Amino acid sequence: MAFPLKTINEPRLDIHTVRQFISREGDGLVGRFHSNVLSSAFQPIFSIAHKRIVGYEALLRGRNPQGTPVSPPEIFSSEKSEMGTVFLDRLCRYLHMGNFRRAGDDLNWLYLNVSPVVVCHGKKYGSYFKELLDEHRLLPSRVVIEIVEQPISNEDLQLDTVHYYKELGCLIAIDDFGAGCSNFERIWTLAPHIVKMDRSMIARACRQERIRDLFPGIVSLLHQAGSLVLVEGIETEEQALIAIDSDADFVQGYYFAKPIADPRRIGDVSFDFDGLLHTFKTMSAARDKGFEQNLLRYKELLRRAVDALRERQSLEKACAFLMNEEPVIRCYLLLPDGRQIERNVVARRRLLDEDPRFKPLEDARSADWFRRHYLRRALKNPGRVQITRPYLSITGGHMCVTLSVMFPSPSGNRVLCCDLDG
């Protein structure tokens, strides 16, 4: 039996109204919307550190009268009215919460998506969510409300909605961050507890080394904003290792577990995190060992250049042998106050590759680099070669790491710096 939406004439879409469109099918609940039958599936969310499931995202499943699957976007797009969309959203949450009870899970989170229409207009159709929690005897602290990253016509209404759920005791997650209209302004404004990074970001990180290098920085910035980070859409071991390397907190995707239609099977799901983390640790150790071996070589070469500078050789002559090393980009000399003494000495092969669009930044004589960590660290550790993490060089608009060392010269203390490909 299908329940036509036109039977709803009252402006209040309360829990009693929604319950009319719910029925039991087998051991679970289904919903009826127009001619479609709606059901639930639950995809596990894992904590990398805890190596176990910590939550489940409720996903909508639909089928038409012929039994053919209908996607959630098709179901939601089939309803054009504001009231109908709010009703459908409330119907889905009733369905998911009722089916989730069958899992017998008394600990982990239930992630529920909330339609942007509901975020902006749900209040006018009466209260609902508190009654829904009470009916299903689910604590608000067990629920993560996912706010989809989509343009919102009224940011104040969105903020009010987020405050409502927070005051109720729920967690807030921003969904699909990194796609569409994503921006950090919304993160700072809404202060979500969790940010779900869109699947497109991890896919691009696999294809593009530059995106992979940026990934940990984005995660770090989200952490500094006060949010835990979940990487969704992980389908391969490579993607999983990138998520681990980025210091993400949670992971979700087919690689770990597919959505489960029967909540009673949730307890059967597991994943070999020990094996995955062993692979990560082995790769990290090999990478670090190779890096340390190369670093020792470049540190020794930098010390040789320092010895030559102490003997009053020119910067170009003192660093000539460094310029023959493949990853070396440039060398330059600083005063302890950060001012650069003369022009950069640039490897010849790099001169051919320099981007002419950055030519206004080429001449760095008298530039002041006192803000740079490589200078400050060199000043605090005289005679010891320091190395930075990869960063964007303003001089050439490319990623690099910098070796730096402070040494005494006949003219006073100097800091020799060497930029390597990052």
Summarize the amount of helix as a percent range: 25-40%
Largest sheet, strands/sense/barrel: 8 strands, mixed, barrel
CATH superfamily of the largest domain: EAL domain
CATH topology of the largest domain: the name is TIM Barrel
The order of strands across the largest sheet is 3-4-6-7-8-9-10-11
Beta-strand portion reads 15-25%
Euclidean distance between termini CA atoms: 63 Å
Mean of residue pLDDT values: 90
Per CATH, which architecture of the largest domain? Alpha-Beta Barrel
Low-confidence stretches: none
Output the structural class.
Answer: alpha/beta
Bulk shape: elongated
Total domain modules: 2
Indicate the CATH class of the largest domain.
Alpha Beta
Question: So how many helices?
Answer: 14
C-alpha Rg (nearest Å):
29 Å
Count of distinct strands: 17
Description:
This protein has 422 residues and is of the alpha/beta class. It folds into two domains: 5-271, TIM Barrel (Alpha-Beta Barrel); 283-421, 2-Layer Sandwich (Beta-Lactamase). It contains 14 helices and 17 strands. It has helices at 15-19, 72-77, 82-100, 116-121, 129-136, 155-168, 184-190, 199-207, 209-224, 237-245, 273-310, 315-318, 348-353, 373-380, and strands at 22-25, 28-33, 36-47, 52-63, 69-70, 109-114, 143-148, 171-177, 194-197, 228-231, 250-251, 328-334, 345-346, 386-387, 391-393, 398-409, 412-421. An eight-stranded mixed β-barrel has the order 3-4-6-7-8-9-10-11, surrounded by four helices. Strands 12, 13, 14, 15, 16 and 17 form a six-stranded antiparallel β-sheet that branches. The protein starts with 14 loop residues before the first helix and ends with a strand. The mean pLDDT is 90.
